[in-house]
Amino acid sequence: MMTIRHNWCSECKETCLNHATLCTICGSTLEAPPAAVVSDLARRNQDSAARRRTNDPPGSLFSFTMQDLVQEATQNQRRDLGDLRELLENIRQEIRATGVAQQDLLEEMRSVREEWQAVPAELWDPSIGSGSSSRPTSVEYLERIPRTVVSRKSSILRQGCLSCSSKAIAGCPLPPPMEVIPGEFGMTEACALEHGTLILPEFNRTGKGGLTLATKTLIANATKPVIVYMERGDGVTFCQKAITAQDAGASAVVIGNNVTEPWPYVMKDSKGEAVGDKVSIPIVMVKLADGQALVSFFRQRNNTTVECAKWNLRMEPQNQNCVICTESFSISEVLLRLPACGHHFHESCAMQWLTSHNTCPYCRRELPTDDAAYEQERRRTERTHASSDSAAGRSSQYQDFYG
Ligand SMILES: [Zn+2]
Ligand SMILES: [Zn+2]
Ligand SMILES: [Zn+2]
Ligand SMILES: [Zn+2]
Questions:
Q1: Distance from the CA of 271 to the center of ligand 3, in angstroms?
Q2: Chosen domain end from 277, 294, 317
Q3: From start to end residue, where is composition biased (Polar residues) (predicted)?
């Protein structure tokens, strides 16, 4: 007997397989499919079961139908990868054992895959993908990757945007709204700072040596909330930059990244300088290109330190999913963040994958292995392509960019 799943979108007039409750196309709430659709599906299932029966050799090893398998795994809310692997292995064994009805089985295998699109293709079929993906990631490397516990301050549960609503001037277009990555210290609640003033520190934008008297005066005399822009690096920690801006009277600080990768980059109080709520303003980061766009916008307006209203900074909660299990990250779960690309996964989901693959499950970036011969060959290839972006990014994965 077939169980009726709530997977029908009445707007799109289609079954929507990729999401549990909402249509991924139009966002409508999914419901039970209309009777006509259900009976049509049942008829097609009967047809395919009948086809399979006629194709079955005498004494077939078929002890269950594919529908049963798919249904069983589909109803399993957790969508456990181990189950999925087992399911696929069962299908493969069926194909090998019977040698018939392959067309049907392959078709059904495809439909199972479609249903779990977020699952990396290699999981379904180890022959997919490059050979490098089948090596286990270096055990030492996996041990060194810091684990994080999701909390209310976690950057992964928050998102933000910096936008400019000043009057546009001919020949000097406004910078487009920018994604900001909230830091994990300072003010981490949702906030909306409207029509503020963005100020670039005079001379040294990294905050080294503090702010000049002119910049401090500018901040002190501003009639609107001030957002100070500073650049990452120069031996000044994120926390020190935030305190410098806060002490001068700023309401928020935007840090421009000084490298392109990894992105998104999560700013933490790595030296414990913010303990005891020493930082009470929000600190957010924009990517390198956006920071450069801000600076050139100010240059074009010929006033690097003079206020340039009106700027809006928003921070709000967001949901993010682990691409391996498709569940959203929630408070107190343990995550693993790959240092090279910055992608987050549940630790348990990631470890299951990384103990047999040396690639990021999301972006496929290669990770180090314990296979000495393979690593030697890889370093040789990397030197050959030393000028390429990916090699430059990869060599930086052990570096610490804090401060
Ligand atoms: Zn729809
Ligand atoms: Zn749909
Ligand atoms: Zn997960
Ligand atoms: Zn990645």
A1: 30
A2: 317
A3: 387-403
Ligand found nearest the CA of 336: 3
Count of structural domains, the chain: 3
Assess whether 145 and 160 both reside in one domain: no
**Which residues are in the CB-under-5-Å shell of ion ligand 4?**
341, 343, 360, 362-363
Residues 162 and 297 in one domain: yes
Expressed as residue numbers, the domain containing 80 is 34-117
ipTM above 0.90, yes or no: no
Distance 313 CA to ligand 2 centre (A): 34
- pLDDT per residue over 149-190, tens digit each? 999 899 999 999 999 887 777 777 888 899 999 999 999 999
The ligand placed nearest to the CA atom of residue 353 is: 3
**Residue among 378, 381, 353 nearest 134 (CA):** 353
Task: Encode pLDDT of 334-393 as tens digits.
Answer: 999 888 788 889 999 899 889 888 888 888 888 888 888 888 887 787 776 655 444 444
Q: 367 near 354, Cβ under 8 Å?
A: yes
Question: How many Å lie between the centroid of ligand 1 and the Cα of residue 74?
Answer: 20
How much distance in Å is there from the Cα of 180 to the middle of ligand 3? 25
